[in-house]
Design a protein that fits this description.
Length: about 325
């Protein structure tokens, strides 16, 4: 009996060893043929733009695609609550780090909206996306406006602007309600002097600390600052100039697809009267949802409401 048991054990070990060797061979062959893993596992990837910049993106779920564009000083990570929610309803959610931000390349050039639009076009083309809903947050709304004016809406089904900085922030003779250039000059000077301090000091007003019914943990604010610090200093400064000085009025006026604007009426970073409401006025047939007492960072403070509004609009 003991002898038979030993034989069985030896046989099992031999079979197990053969299976290990065969598995190793299969993996080696896959690598040698450059065969990738199934797409369902490819949740963190990169694309390369025409100028050689690598853009990091996350690709979750299947179904109709939703592409998220983050705002100044943030990254793809800002959308985690929206992506988790929408993928649970059968949507494919893609969020990428704009150049200079997060895990993407940090070149010393290309922080203008023509380039941002081309980056978005490269993502859509390389992932072969169709019937896309674009969701742009804050200055990321400018990427959408410029992309559509340059590339058209062939691949795009719907558009959402969340806490947008469009159509034009800067005070000029034909935009008297805008913000004075000195506001942005002081912002750039503060970033050059002590970027971590400036970003940390901006967290409380960004998340609306002190507003009615707003509860944001210190850890959440630290998380937001951490995202901002991943952006290169060059990108941080150049993007201020880009979002403050770029006039999107003609881009916005040309939009002719279903559009939703979501904005908080307590947004001090992008005051609604010169951003969200003006954007809505320029787009015929657009919807605007105003969140009472909501700050700029409503993707966190009002995430349940935003998630519901996004889902209803996309499925509509």
């Amino acid at each position: 009996m003991t002898f038979i048991t030993c034989e069985v054990i030896v046989f099992i070990m031999s079979v197990w060893q053969d299976r290990i060797i065969e598995t190793w061979r299969e993996k080696t062959m896959l690598k040698s043929r450059n065969i990738s893993t199934p797409k369902s596992f490819d949740t963190r990837e990169f694309i390369e733009t025409e100028d050689g910049t690598s853009l990091f993106y996350k690709d979750w779920g299947t179904g109709k695609p939703v592409v998220f564009i983050h705002g100044w000083g943030l990254g793809a990570e800002m959308w985690e609550y929206q992506m988790l929610h929408l993928t649970s309803f059968g949507l494919r959610c893609i969020a990428y780090d704009r150049r200079g931000c997060g895990h993407s390349s940090q070149p010393d050039y290309g922080y203008d909206y023509d380039t941002f639009a081309d980056d978005l076009a490269a993502l859509i083309e390389q992932l072969d996306l169709h019937k896309v809903t674009l969701v742009g947050y804050s200055s990321g709304g400018g990427d959408i406006a410029r992309y559509l004016s340059r590339a058209g809406a062939e691949h795009i089904e719907r558009v959402v602007f969340v806490s947008t900085t469009t159509p034009f922030l800067l005070k000029t003779t034909d935009n008297p309600d805008g913000l004075d250039k000195s506001v942005f000059d002081e912002m750039v000077a503060a970033l050059k002097q002590d970027r971590p301090h400036y970003l940390a000091a901006s967290a409380a007003p960004f998340f609306g600390v002190g507003l009615p019914n707003i509860s944001v943990s210190p850890e959440m604010m630290q998380w937001g600052v951490g995202l901002a610090l991943q952006t290169s200093p060059k990108a941080t400064i150049d993007m201020v100039r880009a979002f403050s000085e770029t006039d999107f009025r003609s881009d916005i006026h040309a939009l002719a697809i279903p559009t939703l604007i979501v904005h908080g009426d307590a947004d001090t970073n992008a005051p609604i009267d010169i951003t969200g409401r003006k954007t809505a006025q320029l787009i015929p047939g657009s919807q605007i949802k105003v969140y009472e007492d909501a700050p700029h960072g409503l993707f966190i403070t009002h995430k349940e409401r935003l998630n519901a509004d996004l889902l209803a609009f996309i499925q509509g």
